[in-house]
């Protein structure tokens, strides 16, 4: 699998700017200061979540310099290959190169029109033109050239279109063309489509012709106002759509519900930086993964989702007043395995018909036994938040991997010590099931140490504890070990536990590292574990097999 970018956003980095602005420019987001850094960052996440196309103009030619190239008898052996092989060759080329094969020989002339086309608009620009995804002033030369080249390619090829990425055009300046594109894509059977408006504006109306693309299996829409679905024909649907990504879109609750209801085989839903508060009601027999990132989240109600395995919340918060919480209700989700990042500051959890509060009495109706990997974000210096953690952990009795991200607090309130955890009572997942525990952004505070000590003294089957020390607080190995010295007085419940300590790669105050594409990849067992999986091999890591040797 290709290396994926990891997203961890520090508020201090957002203020100082240069490093993060350079990262944006590498993604083609030019002049982020012209749009506001928040919007520019959202665009970064949007582009990073876009799947790589199956072809690349930079792909190496594996056969370059091969021995057959030295044959100088003038015989065109490649053209003698069966049509099926030649079509396979052409299908692996970018659209511009595929079309050029027609000039090789008469045998090749019609081949590119007979294979499913992969069209990426940035691949068809002249080499002398450097495209930009955002530039002040709207349309420019690169956008006009992209539109003209894409229009020619879509009209010339009879289809089907295996994969189409249209992400470099200033769509507001070419409304007639983009409507025509969608009509052509619908008529010619597009399968995978990334259709992203190059801002501005951020709320450009998406043509309703998108709903004619019924052959779609994967769809990524970015920087649009989605159509009002009330006026669409009753038979409108995406019968083959398995993956849907909505980034920086304006979408009303009823229109989002329409998309889900009319996608009967949808497996993967991702919403990034929605411009409207997200209200999501999940009733799906096929949905397996739901991700919401950088969103104002009103509520998620998992009503009936028998195949749902992953529910991810990254940088979400309540909408409305500062104290208003996002409501997350888990109903029928018997296969839910991964859940996070839950934040007591922003999220209210309901299981069945019970809202979980500090002191809630647990029963079978208030637990989700299927969850095995859990991630939390907690301000350990805020007592009211910490008091919610034991109740929350009791809701998930079979968790085997627990990730906890320690968030800094500007307003500490209340005392948090080991006694608080000891008085919380029996927590089944901690005492009987947690095998791996990861604590991120450790700052050496007493409240954090109290929690670490509680885990050490309670987790009977714990095999590995990973502590990532916040970069600001880890000037030396001795300093790190000194901060963890109080753990030496702990009576570890698991004699074979391995303690791994290393410096966090994130800037202090950053959000947890995240990658949307990895999170929806089911070959990745633990998407929360982006940097700690290889912690023992990490440069500068301290690996201690017996904690009392600290």
Textual characterization of the structure:
Helix content is 23%, strand content 20%. It has 14 helices and 20 strands. The strands form 2 sheets. It has a 15-stranded mixed β-sheet with strand order 1-2-3-4-5-6-8-10-12-15-16-17-18-19-20, with helices on both faces. β15, α9 (383-394) and β16 (401-406) form a beta-alpha-beta unit. α2 (18-26) packs parallel to α3 (37-49) and α6 packs parallel to α7. The longest helix is centred in the N-terminal third of the chain and has 16 residues, at 141-156.
Based on CA atoms alone, the radius of gyration comes out at 26 Å
Query: Between the first and last Cα atoms, what is the distance in angstroms?
Result: 37 Å
What's the overall average pLDDT, rounded? 84
Query: Regions with pLDDT < 50 over 5+ consecutive residues?
Result: 1-17, 62-70
Number of helices: 14
The dominant shape is: elongated
Provide a concise account of the structure shown:
By secondary structure, this protein is of the alpha/beta class. The chain has helices spanning 11-16, 18-26, 37-49, 83-91, 95-100, 141-156, 175-187, 253-261, 383-394, 418-422, 428-433, 446-458, 477-483, 516-519, and strands at residues 117-120, 161-166, 190-196, 218-222, 243-247, 268-272, 278-283, 289-293, 297-304, 310-314, 326-332, 338-342, 347-351, 354-355, 373-378, 401-406, 436-442, 464-469, 498-503, 542-544.
């Amino acid at each position: 699998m290709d290396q994926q970018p990891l997203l961890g956003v520090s508020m201090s980095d957002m203020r100082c700017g240069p490093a993060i602005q350079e990262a944006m420019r590498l993604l083609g987001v030019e002049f982020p200061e012209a749009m506001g850094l928040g919007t520019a960052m959202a665009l970064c996440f949007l582009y990073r979540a876009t799947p790589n196309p199956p072809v690349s103009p930079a792909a190496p030619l594996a056969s370059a310099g091969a021995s057959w190239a030295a044959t100088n008898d003038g015989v065109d052996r490649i053209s003698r290959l069966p049509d099926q092989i030649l079509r396979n060759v052409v299908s692996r080329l970018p659209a511009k190169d595929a079309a050029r094969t027609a000039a090789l020989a008469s045998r090749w002339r019609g081949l590119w029109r007979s294979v499913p086309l992969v069209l990426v608009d940035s691949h068809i620009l002249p080499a002398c033109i450097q495209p930009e995804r955002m530039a002040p002033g709207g349309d420019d030369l690169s956008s006009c050239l992209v539109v003209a080249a894409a229009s020619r390619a879509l009209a010339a090829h009879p289809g089907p279109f295996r994969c189409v990425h249209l992400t470099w055009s200033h769509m507001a300046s070419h409304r007639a063309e983009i409507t025509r594109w969608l009509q052509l894509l619908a008529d010619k059977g597009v399968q995978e489509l990334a259709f992203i408006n190059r801002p501005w504006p951020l709320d450009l109306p998406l043509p309703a012709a998108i709903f004619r693309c019924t052959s779609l299996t994967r769809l990524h829409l970015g920087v649009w106002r989605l159509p009002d679905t009330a006026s669409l024909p009753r038979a409108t649907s995406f019968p083959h759509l398995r993956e849907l990504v909505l980034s920086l879109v304006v979408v009303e609750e009823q229109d989002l519900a329409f998309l889900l209801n009319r996608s009967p085989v949808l497996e993967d839903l991702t919403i990034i930086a929605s411009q409207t508060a997200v209200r999501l009601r999940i009733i799906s027999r096929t949905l397996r993964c739901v991700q919401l990132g950088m969103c104002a989240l009103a509520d998620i109600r998992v009503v009936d989702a028998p195949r749902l395995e992953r529910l991810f919340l990254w940088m979400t918060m309540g909408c409305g007043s500062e104290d208003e919480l996002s409501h997350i209700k888990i109903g029928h989700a018997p296969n839910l395995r991964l859940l996070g990042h839950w934040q007591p500051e922003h999220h209210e959890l309901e299981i069945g018909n019970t809202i979980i509060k500090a002191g809630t009495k647990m029963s079978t109706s208030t637990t989700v036994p299927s969850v095995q990997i859990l991630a939390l974000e907690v301000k350990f210096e805020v007592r009211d938040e910490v008091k919610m953690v034991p109740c929350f952990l009791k809701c998930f009795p079979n968790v085997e991997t627990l990730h906890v991200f320690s968030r800094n607090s500007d307003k500490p309130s209340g005392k948090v010590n080991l006694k608080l955890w000891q008085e919380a009572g029996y927590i089944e997942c901690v005492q009987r099931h947690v095998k791996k525990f990861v604590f991120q952004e450790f700052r050496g505070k007493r409240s954090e140490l109290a929690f670490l000590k509680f885990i050490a003294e309670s987790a009977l089957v714990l095999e590995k504890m990973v502590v990532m020390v916040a970069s600001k607080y880890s000037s030396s190995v001795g300093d790190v070990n000194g901060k963890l010295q109080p753990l030496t007085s702990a009576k570890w419940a698991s004699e074979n536990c391995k303690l791994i300590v290393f410096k966090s790669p994130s800037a202090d105050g950053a959000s947890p590292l995240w990658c949307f594409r990895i999170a929806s990849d089911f070959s990745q067992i633990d998407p929360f574990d982006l940097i700690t999986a290889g912690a023992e091999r990490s440069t500068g890591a301290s690996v201690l097999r017996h904690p009392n040797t600290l």
